[in-house]
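Project standup — Tuesday

K.O.: blocked on the structure for the chain from last sprint. Re-posting the sequence here as requested.
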Amino acid sequence: MAPFASSLVTFLLAAPLLASAVPHDIIPKDIILPENVVVRNPYGATALPRDATHLALDEQAREIVAFRRDELLGRFPVASGISSSRRDAATGSCSDMSSDDVQKLPGWNTLKSTAENNWGKGSYNVVTNDKDYPDSPAQICVSTDIVNIVPDGNPSASSSCNTQSSASDGQQVGTNGTIALTHQEGTESTTTSTVTKETSISTGVSVSAEVGFPDIADVTTAFTFTGTFTNSLSTATSSTNDQTSTATVTQSNSAGKMCHLEFTTQTCTITGTGKIRMLGTGWVWFEYNDQTQGHYKWALSIDSTLTNQDDRSTFIEFKSTTGTTSTSNYQGVCQ
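H.V.: unblocked you, prediction finished:
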């Protein structure tokens, strides 16, 4: 990657020909503007451009200087100039990354070499979530992609299920005619997931992820559920999915008889595995002991520098056991 430019050339000779509003942050502070030029911030008072690739801290002015590659985007107050919302739209629940955490990302060497190629190999500290500018966080977040459970082997109703006949409680019939027998029909499932491999980033943190279970013929249709996972080896969580609905069987009856429902109950156990992608996002600061390119502190966008998701990803792996109970083939019987 080519080094970022450290300065911006401003052509003030053209100022009289420009419209009367010129972004003040692309003009050096020591320049006196013509009277017909109005100074303004092109991005608003409190918004950091989402396409910013790197930042510098102007400690004297207490401003963040934002760049896109070699283009100066603007200056923003440290206290309120940076949006704290996640930069990556494809992320779910998040937790903060420490400076040690960010150095465990697969693409850390790319972040390091990018910083050193642009700002030098002098002595510096790697810093994340600095209390002096808390609105430029570094976080590890769950990808919003659905986590698909992959069943072990080739599960089927014959290999993974037991089927038996069942009956409901009886109801006394008072008069001749018909009786409506209501029941819950469909499939209810419980999935227990146990972490088999934790990520070394944000160990012990609990996160939520959308999990998908596949369609298995004669066992269950596909469904999704929100699961909570703790990034710690051998921790287990359970989630329930209810695909049942109320149905009614209308049965002819005679006075004095007892009526009930007879139906089929199928119970199945399916084991499988899954992987939760955790994405690094936000900013990592390189705080130099000596001034470089006009500043002591520079930050790189993790998202913009590591454009391949795999370079900023780590995974929580788990095994799952899904138990399903399905009821069907309801028939009314009066005796």
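K.O.: great, moving the ticket to review. Residues 108-119 form the longest helix (12 residues). Residues 5-46, 80-91 have pLDDT under 50 and may be disordered.
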